[in-house]
Structure to design on (382 residues):
């Protein structure tokens, strides 16, 4: 059985509302315990993010669901000819923030696309790598000939979980106990990192007749959960022995007073391991496919913070897979960390930039700190 070549033939993105500057963040997210954050300035100084997007009004009222944003990104793929959306045979959606536990995110997105036909839908779970897993499912389905046209998406709606109202019960409890009324850094840290948005790839077994396409050469993934404990988690809390206690094992009162449903991150574990293990995967994936890092024309690493940029650069050099800064293409400072959508947003901006030339190689790196997993992909402009 022969396998099909697979191409990204179009990309798109959707951001809700106007961009939010650093000074405006707490106007949208609110003050915890009516007190300005002590960590905000420090985190923003390190992450380098200048603006982000929230699917919220300043009153904290949601303006879009995750599924709505994703559907709008899908529709944007076909803005030049909306009838072409009927070609879709598969919708593969990745997110860490679905609007509900059930139905699946992909089913909800499909529900916002009544102009499509009955199609296959799939929703990989996870965090940042969820978008790449969705992409890989669409890639493999197209490569195997199961479908001819697929859409893969990455999206997030973090903002609703970052609102101060999610932490007020815990802050009140701490104050009543005469402890420091500020919530832990591992919970507040991510309030100044995350952004909302969605992006999509149109994937086909035929490249464009006019203009560029991106041939998917290969995709690889590595998990190091067998070696490392959880680093970022939601709907759980981390116990002293490093294991997670899930939300179903807490009482309804504990869920609110301990903000169990908030997103948390073990910052020390993150700093020690995220770059080191990501470097292992770069070396392994390039070696497996016989690619030298010097052959890469564009490097698109998903970074949660500019803090990691030099660390990634130095780690790649140490591993003899160095990629010079002039080959890096990132947009973190302008769009924020959009989790599963971040790599899509970088590819979308580069795809429509007018910079790409046929034959160039684009290398994607997506780390996921949840329990240290990574995805890599090589694209060739054609």
């Amino acid at each position: 059985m022969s396998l099909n070549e697979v191409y990204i033939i179009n990309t798109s993105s959707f951001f809700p509302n106007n961009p939010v500057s650093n000074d405006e963040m707490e106007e949208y997210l609110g003050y915890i315990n009516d007190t300005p954050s002590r960590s905000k300035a420090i985190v923003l100084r390190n992450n380098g993010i200048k603006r982000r997007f929230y699917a919220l009004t300043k009153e904290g009222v949601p303006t879009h669901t995750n599924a709505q944003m994703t559907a709008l990104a899908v529709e944007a793929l076909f803005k030049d000819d909306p009838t072409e959306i009927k070609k879709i045979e598969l919708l593969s959606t990745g997110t860490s923030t679905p609007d509900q536990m059930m139905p699946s995110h992909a089913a909800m997105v499909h529900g916002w696309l009544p102009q499509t036909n009955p199609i296959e839908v799939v929703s990989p779970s996870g965090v940042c790598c969820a978008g790449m897993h969705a992409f890989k499912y669409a890639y493999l389905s197209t490569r195997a000939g199961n479908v001819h046209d697929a859409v893969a998406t990455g999206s997030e709606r973090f903002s609703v979980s970052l609102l101060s109202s999610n932490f007020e019960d815990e802050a009140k409890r701490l104050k009543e106990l005469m402890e420091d009324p500020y919530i832990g850094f591992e919970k507040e840290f991510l309030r100044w990192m995350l952004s909302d948005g969605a992006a999509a790839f149109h994937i086909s077994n035929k490249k464009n007749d006019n203009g560029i396409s991106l041939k998917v050469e290969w995709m690889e993934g590595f998990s190091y959960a067998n070696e490392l404990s959880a680093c970022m988690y939601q709907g759980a809390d981390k116990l002293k022995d490093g294991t997670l206690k899930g939300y179903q094992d807490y009482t309804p009162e504990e869920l609110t007073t301990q903000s169990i449903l908030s997103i948390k991150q073990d910052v020390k574990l993150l700093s020690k391991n995220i770059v080191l293990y990501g470097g292992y995967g770069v070396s392994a994936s390039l070696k497996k496919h016989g690619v030298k890092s010097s052959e890469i024309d564009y490097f698109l690493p998903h970074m949660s913070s500019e803090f990691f940029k030099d660390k990634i650069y130095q780690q790649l050099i140490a591993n003899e897979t160095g990629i010079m800064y002039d080959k890096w293409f990132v947009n973190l400072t302008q769009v924020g960390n959009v989790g599963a959508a971040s790599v899509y947003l970088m590819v979308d901006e580069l795809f429509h930039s007018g910079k790409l030339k046929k034959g160039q190689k684009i290398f994607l790196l997506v780390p996921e700190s949840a329990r240290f997993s990574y995805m890599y992909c090589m694209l060739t402009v054609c």
